[in-house]
UniProtKB/TrEMBL annotation:
N-terminal signal peptide: none
Gene3D superfamilies listed in its UniProt record: 3.30.420.40
Ranges for domain ATPase BadF/BadG/BcrA/BcrD type: 12-262
Pfam families: BcrAD_BadFG (PF01869)
Official protein name in the record: BadF/BadG/BcrA/BcrD ATPase family protein
InterPro entries: ATPase_BadF, ATPase_NBD, Euk-type_GlcNAc_Kinase
Amino acid sequence: MSDSLHRPYIAIDGGGTSCRFALNAPGGMVTVRRGSANVFSAPDAAIETLTSGLAELAAQAGLNMAQLADIPLYAGLAGVTDAGSARLVADKLPCRHVQIEDDRRAAVVGALGLRSGCLIGIGTGSFLARQCGETVAFVGGYGAVLGDQASAGWLGKELLLRALLVLDGVEGSSDLVEACLGEFQHDAAQIVRFTVAAQPADYGVYAPQVVRAAKSGDAAGRILMAAGADYICKALVALGRQPGECLCAIGGVAAHYVDFLPPEISSGMMAPQGEALDGALELARRFAMQIWQEQI
């Protein structure tokens, strides 16, 4: 453990919105923030963000790029779908020892620290996870087309679907649905046209309306939030959550489900211990220790 205090390592928390870099070195921590780095949707832009961010990190630490070569690097990046996509990115970076995976595990370790427990990560997209020791298991995280249940994007989609069903006379309306329909002049064709180019964030705009309506007793809002909460409960069962384990919520929507979860789950909610960059730093430290031990 003492070696970790004297040898540097690099951590990257690369999200679809922003990318944060940290170099833990004997002289102290150096951090840099850059733009988005989504390896799946914009691989070339992501690599540019990563390489320019590392160059700035090196400059702030008083190093040149060649000196980064022997520093172990861990990166949790949005859009990493498999080992192949991780390798493609790793090959473009200046460090010889690189570990790259998607951004979920860093978020889990950042929120839970060393504690065993579960994480509900629900913002525009969604995933759930359970940590036991250094093992992390996941549910979800499959993207907006086939997944992201309970997320802001999902709530928006479900609201628009319910609006269409109301227009067809299949479902009953509510103040929430009527307000949504009013934005589209009660015209199904306008709703369908909206969906042609809509991205998850566009659907997510409607999530705050759903949350507010549900908390004020709107029938449709409560149905949607209850459906999201039901998915969360099933996912926690699938993960094997044990009674009494801590439960953290991250993302702009996750905490709003607390009122819709059964007491045996909501009572276990605790504040996150840290952020995804904290998790990336811990994972970078573990990776660096592994590299150093192999070199002994």
